[in-house]
Write a structure and sequence with these properties.
four-stranded antiparallel sheet, mainly beta
Length: 182
């Protein structure tokens, strides 16, 4: 059976058996994920049919019809980070404040009359500077959060990493959140 929906409101995904996810235990019927509103492109039900034959002409005598799986395809939906981790079965790691995390960012800046570009953060890892609109990599010198390039009044795209000490949550793809099926 395949059905398509436009929108669903107040969607709850609940545990069908006692399960432990991360360090939290869920009981049967307890909501694991709540979505206020989602748009769904498809909803497929995978069913299994088993029949028992016998007697005159080997006719079907009993039929068992069970649902094996439901497949839901989302087009849009608002997930919390924990909901997303649960949906893709990846571990969520918390980093406390003052624990340095390298964050990758991209800034679009224009060099001034001296060829200086001032960045919002001080780069600490990889740093790449591209001249626009050609997207051509250029040479530069760095002094803290200032970059010096040869071209003046030119637009640049700068991709770099910086230390963020505000704390965060990160997904570890490949590290399973739970060894069960939901």
């Amino acid at each position: 059976m395949s059905v398509s929906f436009k929108e669903l409101y107040d969607v709850y995904l609940k545990a069908t058996y006692p399960i432990e996810i991360g360090n939290r235990k869920f009981e049967v019927g307890e909501p694991i994920i709540h979505l206020d509103r989602i748009q769904i492109s498809g909803f497929d039900e995978v069913r299994q049919y088993v029949t028992a034959h016998g007697g005159f002409n080997d006719l079907t005598r009993i039929t068992w019809d069970t649902t094996k799986d439901f497949r839901i395809s989302f087009q849009q939906g608002v997930f919390s980070p924990q909901d997303f981790a649960l949906a893709i079965n990846s571990n969520m790691v918390e980093y406390a404040e003052q624990s340095p995390i390298w964050v990758t960012t991209t800034e679009y800046c224009e060099s001034d009359e001296n060829g200086i570009i001032e960045l919002k953060h001080t780069p600490c890892g990889n740093l790449f500077v591209y001249k626009l609109p050609e997207n051509e990599k250029v040479q530069f010198t760095q002094n803290g959060n200032e970059l010096t390039v040869e071209d003046i009044y030119t637009d640049f795209k700068i991709c770099y990493q910086y230390d963020d000490l505000a704390g965060c949550q990160m997904l570890q793809i490949g590290t399973r959140l739970t060894n069960s099926y939901l």
